[in-house]
Amino acid sequence: MSLDISTLYLVATLLAALLGGMLMYFGKQENIAALDWWGYAYLLGATDVALWALASPALPETFAQAIHALGFIACGMVWNAARVFHGAKPNWPGLLLGALAWVAATVSLPPDAVALRMTLGAGIVAIYAGLTAAQLGSERRKAVQRRWPAILVPLLHGGVLMAPILLADLLTPAGRPITSNVWVTIFAIELVLYAVGTVFVIFMLVSERTVRAHKTAAAIDPLTGMFNRRGFSEATTRMIAREADAGRPVTVMIFDIDFFKSINDRFGHPAGDELLKLFATLVTNTLRISDLSGRIGGEEFAALLPCSMDEALVAAERVREAFETCGIVVDDAPVETTVSIGVAGGPPRTELEVLLAAADTALYQAKRGGRNRVEAAMEQPLVPELGRRKSVVAVKSPALPRQVGLAGAA
After folding, report:
1. Is 3 left (phi over 0), alpha (psi -120 to 50) or beta?
2. Which of 56, 74, 219, 343 is close enough to 41 for a disulfide, judged by CB 3.0 to 4.6 Å?
């Protein structure tokens, strides 16, 4: 059975136009600029093939070949769509370079240099395909298993395009035009498959990004930008397991802003929200980049530190002191900002909820002891139902020397 090449190219043209319109529609609906780029690229490619098929018989060979510059611009747009999708700026010189090289070649080469022009055109498309594959595979946050279709589809396109051109001299009988070779038929079929495969990859990437965005939104507190309780629990559970495998201790802190309700009552909820954001920023900037922190309640925050209790107590005191001296003024009135902190540690693989319960007991002791202080739970194996009954050891705070003392020494 023989396949008509003209029919195959017509199918590829109509399919590209349909997919291009679909991509642009979803780009507008979802406000994703990369989909617009991909959509315009498909429409431009379809326009190239349509103009070449309809107008080339009535034009001189040089002008007919120059029409394909639109197709090379479309290839550049596909590459730039991948750049935009990953947050990079469009590369305008790179977008036009292939088309300019093609136009220069069609003007300078003799009309009978068909094989050379085809080799040049295939090389330009293959380069753009390689750039697209590299860009789609460059986002390191994705697992390799999720990235391979995005890399493979454009690479196959470039390979299928280049192989018949480079082997044409070996596979084409003498005196037979290159355009009649079976490889041209294979390429026409590949165009249809590439158009469909690329759209599949595009929607796979968009779907994966959407799912990741929803997961992130479900784990992040919208006011402070920190982990919410769910996100904090998931992240810290992984850290606890990782640190336990390495034989390293972890310590949990719970922060509670003192007299937060009175600040809301005096200055209003907007001022309270600003105070929460300020404290979140202060915690993030004061703790190490390896420490995890989140907002687990109204004015209650927590942190997990991969370190010993002694190191965590120093870090907690640093946060307490920084918040006390941050100097907030609302409506020309200074606002007293203090925080009470409970700290707890445990043996490897102690569950997060157990550590939080012990830290919460220490926090309660800090509140009862006069606030604006750091209290530490005794570092020993904890049991969930007994977590709140553990004794606590007060850690001396330089801000309130008469209110804070070591257990047994007060």
Report:
1. beta
2. 74
Judge whether residue 145 has pLDDT over 70. no
Angle between helices 352-368 and 229-245 (to 10 degrees): 110
Q: What is the pLDDT of residue 156?
A: 58
| Strand ranges for 117-261 from DSSP E | 251-257
Cα angle: 122, vertex 41, 147; to 5 degrees: 80
Strand boundaries in 118-250, DSSP class E: none
The CA-atom distances, in angstroms, between 348 and each of 114, 255, 305 are 72, 23, 13
**Three-state secondary structure call for residue 401:** coil
How far apart CA 235 and CA 410 sit, in angstroms, is: 38
Amino acid identity of 178? I
Closest CA to 196 of 12, 396, 395: 12
3 state DSSP class of 295 = strand
CA distance 194 to 15: 11
Closest CA to 97 of 141, 65, 117, 127: 127
The pLDDT of residue 397: 45
Nearest to 79 by CA among 31, 40, 117, 119: 40
In terms of DSSP H, where are the helices of 56-143?
61-66, 69-85, 92-108, 114-136
Contact 219, 36 (CB under 8 A): no
Q: Which two tokens stand for residue 287?
A: 């703790």
pLDDT per residue over 294-342, tens digit each? 999 889 999 999 998 999 999 999 999 999 998 888 777 788 889 999 9
| Full-model pTM | 0.57
Q: How far apart are CA 65 and CA 72, in angstroms?
A: 12
Reading across the β-sheet that carries 292-295, which strands appear in turn?
292-295, 300-305, 251-257, 339-345, 374-377, 392-395
The CA-based diameter of the chain, rounded to the nearest angstrom, is: 104
* Residue 241 token pair: 């397991």
